[in-house]
Automatic annotation (TrEMBL):
This is YcjX family protein. InterPro entries: YcjX-like. It comes from Pelagovum pacificum.
């Protein structure tokens, strides 16, 4: 394994030196990583971002769009022929059809190259012609990113942490009963191994649907071609006193290490470690609705995600000897359109507080970070209604379940984020003084004017932060 790590480092260094040597003679490339946990809206974010960069009428806070520096934008084949192309056209068609629907979520890594023809501005702009800047967007499941935290844990540590964390979750009761009745010191029985791994995978799927974030190993949720293979046939077990060479526990330990070596490490080496800028999409409202424990779980998961990054400035020496570092990281609370705009500052403040540990870690290493509330595709309009003698700021949208229009008031978010984070840290089972609701809205029917992309909230600000400086 040491030799493999050294070989990986040497190949990465050679690749990086080649990038720098050829940089002055080639078009600049920005590699933007897009991730987030399930249902955070990665697919919609990429689709809306690309559509709004091609038709920039709704992008006034992206300076290169506002001042006309971006002359044109067009799609090209991505440079890596081994990665599936992000199905932009299909996803856009789903969102803009006469009966719009949400596209399928991210289930694998994919890539898309958007090329921007940019006219330089400033004192020397009259002497320079337009240049091309390539934006390579890499989409990958957030569950895979959480797996990077496994690289520093052995099977015993991961099992102990996992079993402790899920001990009081009703969703895990079935698996925990099966695991406690299993003798890890007994000889390996493949049927038993499959029952345990299947039961644990079932728990992970239910936990994800219930709003829990710490669902590792991520490939148990998105197995793809690995489904049924030994590398996905293990589960957390309490370590017995004796672990013989042929024991179930020892075989699970071997498969766990194989998972790290054959699944997690190649993802880091081939894809994740090459990213320049990163956006992490977070369904903060969904976690708040799920309750204090889900909020605390999300806080821990996001801190773990940051530990996988190598944040810092892309200096020449750091890229040769340490690999490419992420220069900017944006934490975006999605579904801001589910709130009236008067509550957006509270949502952003909660996001900043929720991500404090993760952001401080990245900022300390030199990366520039920011948090904001966005809606990649606006599905609602704002309104005011009288209810119980009060005037409520609400949003109206089309319900996914019935297709009918409905007004929605989710509850008033606290101005002090500590009112949510304190009970979350203390392990409270529910909020004491309020309930926070969520609504499942369908995409709104769109009528777009020429030159306008889909409606959004602060997508242009997100783009300016992530790559506006490179345009």
């Amino acid at each position: 394994m040491v030799i493999t790590a050294i070989a990986d480092g040497i190949s990465r260094s050679v690749e990086t030196m080649t990038d720098y040597a050829s940089a002055p003679f080639s078009d600049p490339v920005i590699r933007l990583g897009v991730t987030g946990l399930s249902r955070a809206g990665k697919t919609v974010f990429i689709t809306s971002l690309v559509a709004n960069l091609m038709d920039r009428g709704r992008m006034p806070q992206l300076l290169a769009a506002k001042n006309g520096a971006i002359r044109t934008a067009y799609l090209q084949p991505q440079p890596d022929d081994t990665i599936p192309r992000f199905e932009y056209e299909d996803h856009l068609a789903a969102l803009t059809s006469p009966e719009p629907r949400w596209p399928e979520g991210t289930r694998r890594i994919s890539e898309l190259r958007l090329s921007l023809r940019v006219q330089p501005t400033g004192l020397l702009s009259g002497w320079q012609g337009p240049r091309t800047v390539h934006l390579d967007i890499v989409d990958y499941p957030g569950e895979w990113l959480l797996d990077l935290g496994l690289m520093d844990k052995d099977f015993a540590s991961w099992s102990d942490e996992t079993l402790t964390r899920i001990a009081n979750r009703k969703e895990a009761a079935g698996y925990l009963a099966m695991a406690s009745a299993t003798d890890g010191a007994a000889d390996l029985d493949e049927a038993t191994a499959k029952r345990l791994s299947s039961a644990y995978a079932d728990y992970l799927n239910v936990a994800r649907a219930k709003g829990w974030s710490d669902c590792t190993p991520g490939r148990f949720l998105l197995p793809g071609d690995l489904e049924g293979s030994p590398v996905l046939t293990f589960a957390p077990l309490a370590k017995p006193e004796e672990t013989g060479r042929r024991s179930l526990w020892r075989e699970f330990e071997r498969r766990y290490e194989s998972y790290k070596r054959n699944v997690v490490r190649p993802f880091f080496r081939d894809h994740f470690s090459r990213i320049d800028r990163q956006i992490v999409l977070v369904d903060v409202l969904g976690a708040i609705h799920a309750g204090p424990r889900a909020v605390e779980d999300l806080r821990h998961s996001l801190a773990d995600i940051l530990s996988a990054f190598q944040p810092g400035r892309n200096s020449f020496l750091s890229r040769i000897f340490q690999g490419r570092r992420v220069e900017k990281i944006l934490f975006a609370a999605t579904k801001a359109d589910h709130l009236h705009h008067t509550q957006h500052p509270e949502l952003t403040a909660i996001t900043e507080a929720l991500l404090r540990d993760a952001r401080d870690r990245a900022a300390f290493a030199g990366a520039k970070t920011e948090a904001m509330s966005i809606a990649s595709l606006r599905t609602t309009v704002e309104d005011r209604v009288e209810h119980g003698g009060r005037t409520l700021d609400v949003v109206r949208g089309r319900l996914k379940s019935t297709g009918k229009q409905a007004a929605f008031y989710p509850g008033e978010l606290p101005s002090d984020p500590g009112h949510l984070l304190a009970p979350a840290r203390e392990g409270a089972e529910r909020w004491l003084d309020a309930d926070y609701e969520i609504m499942d809205f369908a995409p709104a029917r769109l009528t777009l004017e020429p030159g306008d992309g889909p409606p959004h909230i602060r997508l242009d600000r997100a783009a300016q932060f992530l790559f506006g400086d490179r345009l």
